[in-house]
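All the exercises in this workshop are built on plain-text protein records. A record pairs a protein's sequence with a compact description of its fold. The structure tokens are whole numbers drawn from a learned vocabulary of backbone shapes. Once this layout is familiar, the rest of the handout is easier to follow. An example says more than a description, so a record of this kind follows.
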Amino acid sequence: MATAASASASPAALRAKTPAPGAHPSPKSSLAFPWPSPGASASASAAASGRLHASLHLGGVRGVGTANGTGLHVLHPDVKPLAVPKMAGGAGAQKSILLYHCEEMRDLAQQVAARNDDIELCTISWRKFPDGFPDLFIPNAQNIRGRHVAFLASFSSPGVIFEQISIIYNLPKLFIASFTLILPFFPTGTSERMEDEGDVATAFTLARSLSHIPISRGGPTSLVIFDIHALQERFYFGDAILPCFESGIPLLKSRLQELPDSDNIAIAFPDDGAWKRFYKQLQHFPMIICNKVREGDQRIVRIKEGDARGRHVVIVDDLVQSGGTLIECQKVLAAHGAAKVSAYVTHGIFPNKSWEKFKPDNGGMYPSLAS
């Protein structure tokens, strides 16, 4: 999934501690990341073939609804449990994990707790004072001493960050055994560097804020993030927190193996950055690398390497904003003979309802994709 997307973030199961290398759950269906879909129903993949009519399906988009079963194709798989390993307490006793969550993550947290006997779902009172500032309360706080605690967060807008940070700072101070913060989408990831004097790297600001989470009885907080946009951002975090970077690509690989045309799939990357990030995990597929070139005020997408002819091409990236690059990639891939074009992104943002550009017209074709 994040913001209007907090997207389909569909990575390997969330963990309270760093998982064993190579251990990844496999999804039951769909390209999407198991995020809650408020009010949105799963829509079936529309199969379109043809040189200029390859349809574009989005996998991994969270929180984007479609009207009357039409519009953006969002596939929602069965949500996998929050695979938190059992953590031993004193005298070898196994203790369950207490899972707290923000309001936006309620549905996902409920599904996770329902499928895992080790997880006990807990609630927080997200009240507000008349002036609009948070009036927060953690029920039965005295009973969580010595327990392993996790918090499922969503920093989908600046307005919800402060109230969640307040809870995140408070939980470790309640004498808990350990604390894990699950923040699937790091929202300031696209603002990670300064190019001109005066630019503010807000990714650094948020990372430093999270680095000051109080230490629990078990030590520093474990912070789980999926497909952080800029890998160098891991160095923004201080030593008082243990960032664990996961990926949604294992879910994609499992899903692709289930498709009827799994032997005819090629992976396309919209630019060199996406290729560098993901190619090692997908190198057993034929690959297509696109690049964006500037012509006047326009950015044109071209195929730099690879052959799309007759293939089901899956565009892979970590983050999509307006979706313009996906559409341009689809056009060039279809023009080069792709039989079908799909897309998988861990985080679909789509601000200002930009996902609407993917809605089909009355004729069933995508207006921006039709020949």
About this structure: Residues 72 and 358 are 5 Å apart (CA to CA).
